[in-house]
Design goal:
Subunit structure: Interacts with the ELOC-ELOB/Elongin BC complex. Part of an E3 ubiquitin ligase complex including ZER1, CUL2 and Elongin BC.
Protein name: Protein zer-1 homolog
Largest sheet: 10 strands, parallel
Keywords: Acetylation, Leucine-rich repeat, Repeat, Ubl conjugation pathway
InterPro entries: ARM-like (IPR011989), ARM-type_fold (IPR016024), Armadillo (IPR000225), LRR_dom_sf (IPR032675), LRR_Zer-1 (IPR056845), ZER1-like_C (IPR055142), Zyg-11_UBL_adapter (IPR051341)
Family: Belongs to the zyg-11 family.
Shape: elongated
Strand content: 5-15%
Number of strands: 14
Number of helices: 31
Length: 751
């Protein structure tokens, strides 16, 4: 078969890193005083391994709900003599001041802190300890890192009301950061003087000032000989800004894009501004002007525009100012601008909304720092996947998975991403997906269900799970899936459609799985949850899919699982059975599901006495004549009675109906069935049927069992002949043929 790119096994490094992080105590560490992690004294790890341990740890805490963070994790890296760190990426609430403090002796070269809102000005001081080695630093979205807590002096009462006040640190600068070249200050808090902060830096190569409003950027010219990358996303520009940018002649990457929904911008792009960039920034390979309104027409006449093969040659560019480029750009950001729909765009990669390629480029470029843009791009992908066909499926899936993992708490991304996943995993794309990729999808879907109680996300996630082979593909997360679904079904207020999908999934998850799985799910409260749903439906007098699926799920989960059968009886399952029969006398599917379940209960010897009441025996006897769902209801009723009869006359503790009378009705029922009936039933084992063969107490039970085997092996020989042989049915049948007590027609059938 075709080997898929994403299907290669994980590297040994990845597997070991993951294993060590999940088993720190058993591998690298021991517990001191039962709470603090300590590194074993004989362990020495180079930066290649330590960097991975830290970065993977952050990833696991963020994306794997089962993974427990350790309070003292970062202290493992406090001593550079045993553990070396060089390049680390920390994000969000995972990291606090004391964590950075713990690693302050390390010679960090690269430190990315993304949206670390818990970091305060204490961490600014810690940064100084890395100043002699740091080359690359990101403080993107660390909105409190310039705040310190100040205890106000004076009266006691005031201290109670306002124990700590946040004060902006004004005196910090990058003095002494002699090697710093790459700096991201995106979404820096207002009030910090960027110019003063940056002035000590001798030669900056890349600067990101996303989401900061600066009216004067003249100071940027001090790095006009070194700056190769400048990002001013969402800065409202003016003529002054443009003049400064035009002087930064070494620029290779310029991003002046904006989110056109976020606020009002006075600035409009003109042909002159684009010309200025093309003429002055001769090294430009990447330009992003997404979200901008063009004040005037920058395009060539439409007749000329439509002519010839699509070209990326600057000379043929549909955007007139770009005809001055020496060579095509590597990247051109035109997302949410009218320019992206033109024919000839002089760039190898374009972000825009015109087609799948442009949309995927947008998701790829903006996921990390611009969720507000990414969610709109994913929404466009959703439309493409829904209406047309995705031609770059693997890339699309990978990008959506990354966005969902990266922005676990962003509602817009969770809603659009989970909807896109539903269309990207459906059956027409199935062949193109590896096991590994499909597992990643399941992981992010379950993360979404866990962190979002929001109806749309829950529905999208449940629908996406329906695209998988159940239970096989969900086996590796079996407990977690069941817990999440039961959680949805146990909520007091429920969305009808989600309820229906969740019950369907629960039913599929307990169908054809091992008994230990069924027992585990039973212990999670599965039986109780299904009975509650049935109770609600009965109260509303509705027999819909939820009602039928709930009984079907109970039928599946009680199959050869006595504990679950007992739970069914203990939680008044029989009372609900009788009420449903009475309320819905015509519902054939329902009757079949209920009797299938009672067949499972009747197979458990210890529970049969609870079925031995006049009311139940009369109900089962009357159902022998049912024509519902072919022979299924009659067959299951007869099965229940066959197990009861097998306990002998002394177990018949009721006066009405008489045992002989019921036996007579059972014979009549079996003789009325067509031996070639196709069946609506699935046996994993014949054991409960085979145990009725070697006995003389109830010939009718023996006959029912023989009929069942005969029908199944003759109608479905490929499936059931091997099962009969494997479970030792042949010698049992041979012995029965020799029994005096067996009826002649039973022996004929057995032969």
């Amino acid at each position: 078969s075709l080997k898929m790119a994403s299907d290669s096994p994980e590297s040994l490094m990845t597997l070991c890193t993951d294993y060590c992080l999940r088993n720190l105590e058993g591998t690298l560490c021991y517990l001191l005083d039962n709470e603090t992690l300590r590194l074993h004294p004989d362990i020495f790890l180079p930066s290649e391994i330590c960097d991975r341990l830290v970065n993977e740890y952050v990833e696991l805490v963020k994306t794997d709900s089962i993974f427990e963070p350790h309070e003292s994790f970062f202290t493992l890296f406090s001593d550079p003599r045993s553990t070396r760190l060089a390049r680390i990426h920390l994000r969000e609430q995972i990291v606090q001041d004391q964590d950075l403090e713990a690693i302050r002796k390390q010679d960090l070269v690269e430190l990315y802190l993304t949206n670390c809102e818990k970091l305060t000005a204490k961490s600014l001081q810690t940064l100084v300890s890395f100043s002699h080695t740091l080359i690359s630093l990101s403080l993107f979205g660390c909105c409190n890192i310039f705040y310190e807590e100040e205890n106000p002096g004076g009266c006691e009462d005031d201290c109670l009301v306002n124990p700590t006040r946040q004060v902006l640190v004004k005196d910090f600068t990058f003095e002494g950061f002699s090697r710093l070249r790459f700096l991201n200050l995106g979404r820096l808090i207002e009030g910090v003087n960027v110019e003063t902060l940056l002035r000590p830096l001798a030669s900056l190569a890349a600067l990101d000032l996303s989401g900061i409003q600066l009216n004067d950027v003249g100071f940027l010219t001090q790095w006009k000989d070194s700056l190769v990358s400048l990002v001013l996303y969402n800065m409202d520009l003016s003529e002054e800004h443009i003049q400064v940018i035009a002087q930064l002649r070494k620029l290779r990457h310029l991003d002046i894009s904006r989110d056109h929904l976020s606020s009002y911008y006075k600035f409009k792009l003109t042909r002159r501004v684009l010309n200025l960039f093309v003429e002055n920034l001769v090294n430009l390979t990447s330009l992003d002007i997404s979200g901008h309104t063009m004040l005037e027409n920058c395009t060539i006449p439409s007749m000329e525009e439509k002519m010839g093969q699509t070209s990326i040659e600057p000379a043929k560019s549909s955007i007139a100012p770009f005809r001055g480029l020496k060579r095509p750009l590597q990247f051109l950001g035109l997302f949410e601008t009218s320019l992206c729909r033109l024919t000839h765009i002089p760039a190898y990669k374009v972000s825009g909304d015109k087609n799948e390629e442009q949309v995927l480029n947008a998701i790829e470029a903006y996921t990390e720092h611009r969720p507000e843009i990414t969610s709109r791009a994913i929404n466009l992908l959703f439309d493409i996947a829904r209406i047309e066909r995705c031609s770059q499926l693997l890339r699309a899936l990978q990008l959506v998975i990354t966005a969902l993992k990266c922005h676990k708490d962003d509602k817009n991304i969770q809603v659009t991403g989970s909807a896109a996943l539903f269309y990207l995993t459906n059956s027409e794309y199935r062949m193109e997906q590896s096991v590994k990729l499909r597992r990643q999808v399941i992981q992010v879907v379950l993360n979404g269900m866990e962190s979002y109680q929001e109806v749309t996300v829950q529905r999208n996630c449940c629908l996406t799970l329906c695209n998988f082979s159940i239970p096989e593909e969900l086996e590796f997360q079996y407990r977690r899936v069941n817990e999440l679904l039961l959680n949805i079904l146990n909520q007091s207020r429920q969305d009808e459609s989600i309820q229906r999908i969740a019950v369907h999934l629960c039913n599929a998850l307990v169908c054809q799985v091992d008994n230990d799985h069924k027992e585990a799910v039973g212990k999670m409260g599965f039986v109780m949850t299904m009975l509650k749903l049935i109770q609600k439906k009965l109260a509303d007098k509705t027999c819909d899919q939820v009602m039928e699926f709930s009984w079907s799920a109970l039928w599946n989960i009680t199959d050869e699982t006595p504990d679950n059968c007992e739970m069914f009886l203990n939680y008044s399952g029989m009372k609900l059975f009788l009420e449903c029969l009475k309320e819905f006398p015509e519902k054939q599917e329902l009757h079949r599901n209920m009797l299938g379940l009672l067949g499972n209960v009747a197979e458990v010897k210890e529970l049969r006495p609870q079925l031995m009441t006049s009311q139940f025996i009369s109900v089962f006897s009357n159902l022998l004549e049912s024509k519902a769902d072919g022979i299924e209801v009659s067959y299951n009723a007869c099965g229940v009675l066959s197990h009861i009869m097998f306990d002998g006359p002394e177990a018949w503790g009721i006066c009405e109906p008489h045992r002989e009378e019921v036996v007579k009705r059972m014979w009549a029922a079996i003789q009325s069935w067509d031996i070639n009936s196709r069946r609506n039933i699935n046996y994993r084992s014949f054991e409960p049927i085979l145990r009725l063969l070697p006995q003389g107490i109830s010939p009718v039970s023996q006959h029912w069992a023989t009929w069942a085997l005969y029908n199944l092996v003759s109608v479905y020989p490929d499936k059931y002949c091997p099962l009969l042989i494997k479970e030792g049915g042949i010698p049992l049948l041979k012995d029965m043929i020799k029994m005096a007590s067996a009826r002649q027609e039973t022996k004929e059938m057995a032969r």
